[in-house]
TrEMBL record:
CDD domains: NAT_SF. Transmembrane segments: none annotated. One of its GO terms (molecular function) is acyltransferase activity, transferring groups other than amino-acyl groups. Pfam families: Acetyltransf_1. This is GNAT family N-acetyltransferase. It comes from Dyella psychrodurans. Residues 3-163 form the N-acetyltransferase domain. InterPro entries: Acyl_CoA_acyltransferase, GNAT_dom. Keywords: Transferase. The keyword Transferase applies.
Amino acid sequence: MALAIRDVREHDLDAVLALNNTAGRSILVLDAAQLRYFYEHADYFRVAEIDGELAGFLIALRDGRDYGSPNYRWFSEHYPSFVYIDRIVVANAYRRHGLGRIFYCDVNSFAEVRVPLLTCEVFLEPIDDVVVLFHGTYGFQEVGQQRMGEHGPQVSLLAKDLPSFAYVRDTYLEHGGLPDLPWLASRVPYLTHNDSKPRRLAGERRS
């Protein structure tokens, strides 16, 4: 089995949308315009390919985005700097094989050189004990709860401290930025020119 975790490409979007909208009630349905927003603005948008098949994806955004999610807004009101996991979806055929942990390790590595906090939420209505346990064992702690809209589900707002960030900030971000290495590069999500391939930049100085 050949597994690859890579940045999303435009030709993946139809498959990503279909996967999202058949994931079940714990994942909010998207339309094409909402998915295009993520393609153009998400700081982290990676897919998993297994033997050439789309097996899952994870979307995350940094603070400072113009994003209307009530949960993202909650974190924006309470924390100055974070990466917010908006959603993770794994195809039914590839569940229970550790792909969720692989994604979380990857987004953790992305976040810990940029921000002090990794955040997300889990639904409490209906509650999924497997999901709650997964996040607890991965180091997340509840920092709040809220209801998503007047009639929406109650959610638990979770945050994970990233202790490596202080070292990265003091050693690199405040002294010229990250090294120019491919695994440290940042996604440039919105192509405003006639580029045919996503461009990635390293050495960012945001903290």
